[in-house]
Amino acid sequence: AIRQQDRIDRIEGPSPYGSAQRYQLLAAIGQTRQARKAIEDYLREDPYNYYMQVFLGDIDLRAGRTPDAFRQYNAIRKTSPENPYLALSLSNYYGTLEQFDSAAHYQREAVDNEMIDLDYKLNILKDYPWLKKSENAEYEALQSLVRQYPQQENSLFALAQYCLDNERPSEAEPLLWTVIDINPKNDRAWQSLLGIAQADTTTSDSVYEHLVRQALVSRPEQKQWYYLMSIIQARKDDLDSCIWYCKEGLRQPDEIDLRNKLGLLVQLGDTYMRQNVPDSAYTYYDAALAYDPENVYILNNYAYFMAVNGGDLRKAEKMSARTIKKDPDSPTYLDTYAWILHLQGQDLLARFYMQQAWDKSTDHSDPELLEHYEVIFGKKPE
Question: Which of 151, 153, 189 has its CA nearest to residue 172?
Fold first, then answer.
């Protein structure tokens, strides 16, 4: 590898990258003096290369030679005080000495340096812990980035994410909408806005629907937003619109998104059952089970609807049995199984499972559960 690096240097000439590579290779085989000399040789060729200036000090710092590192950093301060990498190296130096206030001061100085680009500054905040040790210091640094880059979606999103991580969604939300204004296709911003809306119990149905519609306009190729719109329409009892959104979502090309594709198929099955079109419902349930054969929600709904609509009771029983095998404590699945057994005339066994469903339920006012209990036992529950 060193010989190959020699050839590259002969062809392309000395470079910071090549010198750093040579250092790493020589250090890896224990030739530490020669490794350091590779950096010193390059600095003689290009003494004002900012990155390589601090490289020598960083080598000493990693090796535990903190006085040597500090001497190198001091030399840079005298010759190249504008070096944009110096502040970060000093931050690490003071962090190594556990002088965390000084470490945070220099980390912030690096974040505020106009010669460093935004992505590098965001990495400084993410990868180095010193500002995190001081209350509000990281927040103030992120605010500084937003002031420096008010039209950069990454600076705004970083501050929004900090607010979300610290349970301040009301501060994050306007920042995220600004990100969307800059880049309507920013998926992370849409997902964060969705998370805020879903977590806030005071979010009105109209506000939630507006958010989902806006996301659908911006990201029409993503199945997720069609699925969420189908749920909204189903809650409004607009079943034709629900079916339209489901079918449009399934037509989108994103085949990787199996979770939402499955949701759309199940939603179609459920909606066609609500419209009393069982054959169509069964078609979509079968399609959903092809993707997720052990999905207890699909198995339960499919089995129940098949049973109450005069379908194949043996097939329904087998599917229902799989649900209670996977989740034997679910009153819903136990109730379905008991009802299917009752429809087959197996009332002795049906009573056994119906009693379990009743005992495990926390909602004894559920009208369907009450009805099934009274029919199977021939009396009201005690």
Answer: 189
For residue 46, what are the CA distances in angstroms to 16, 34, 193, 355, 372?
9, 18, 49, 84, 86
Strand ranges, E, within the chain: none
Q: What percentage of the chain exceeds 90 in pLDDT?
A: 79
Residue 307: CB atoms within 10 Å: 24
Whether 342 contacts 374, CB under 8 Å? no
* Token pair for 66: 């903190």
Checking 40-44 for CB contacts under 8 A at 24+ apart, the result is: 41/14, 42/14, 42/16
d(CA 146, CA 143): 5
Is the Cβ–Cβ distance between 199 and 169 less than 8 Å? yes
Contact 131, 95 (CB under 8 A): no
Contacting residues for 262 by C-beta, under 8 A, at least 6 apart: 288, 291, 292, 295
Neighbouring C-beta atoms of residue 169, cutoff 10 Å? 18
What does the DSSP assignment read for 55-115?
HHHHHHHHTT-HHHHHHHHHHHHHH-TT-TTHHHHHHHHHHHTT-HHHHHHHHHHHHH-TT
> Span 215-232, mean pLDDT?
96
Whether the CB-CB separation of 266 and 298 falls below 8 Å is answered with: yes
Measured torsion, CA atoms of residues 101, 102, 108, 111, in degrees rounded to the nearest 10? -140
Res 279 pLDDT > 80: yes
pLDDT digits (tens, 9 = 90+) for 142-151: 999 999 999 9
282-340 pLDDT, tens digit per residue, is 999 999 999 899 999 999 999 999 998 888 999 999 999 999 999 999 999 999 999 99
User: For the segment 33-68, what is each residue's pLDDT rounded down to a tens digit?
Assistant: 898 888 888 888 888 889 899 998 999 998 899 999
| Best CA proximity match to 105, nearest among 63, 127, 147, 134 | 134
Longest Cα separation, the chain: 97
- Taking alpha carbons only, the member of 370, 365, 364 closest to residue 339 is 370
Task: Please tell me the pTM assigned to this model.
Answer: 0.81
